[in-house]
C-alpha cells in the first residue's frame, strides 16, 4: 500500500526581487515541478508593501519540497 501524496500548497521561498523569483520559478518548472508566484501583483502595484507582506513567494506542493531544495542546491549561483 502506497502512502498518500500530500497536496498541501506551501511557500517554498520568498524573494524581494521579482526577476529572481521568476528565474527560480522557471528553473523549477523546467525540472517538472509545478509551482506559481504569489503576491507579485500586490508588490508591483504597491512597492512599499514588499517588506510588509514578506516579498514575492514561490508556492509549491509540499511533497515537492526536497526536490526543489536539491534543484536550487545544484544552481548555487542563483541564490547569491
How does this structure look, described?
This protein has 80 residues and is an alpha+beta fold. It has four helices and three strands, in the order E-H-E-H-H-E-H. It has helices at 18-30, 40-45, 49-53, 65-74; strands at 9-15, 35-38, 56-61. The longest helix has 13 residues, at 18-30. The termini are far apart. The mean pLDDT is 87.
Draw up the topology in text.
Layout (H helix, E strand, L loop, with lengths): L8 E7 L2 H13 L4 E4 L1 H6 L3 H5 L2 E6 L3 H10 L6
Antiparallel strand pairs: 1-3, 2-3
The backbone outline, from C-alpha atoms, is globular
Radius of gyration over C-alpha positions, nearest whole angstrom: 14 Å
Strand content: 15-25%
Order of helices and strands: EHEHHEH
* Average of pLDDT: 87
What strand line-up does the widest sheet have? 1-3-2
Quickly give the structural class.
Answer: alpha+beta
The beta-strand count equals 3
Helix content: 40-55%
Helical segment count: 4
Short description:
With 80 residues, the protein is an alpha+beta fold.
Give short descriptive properties of this protein.
80 residues; alpha+beta; 21% strand
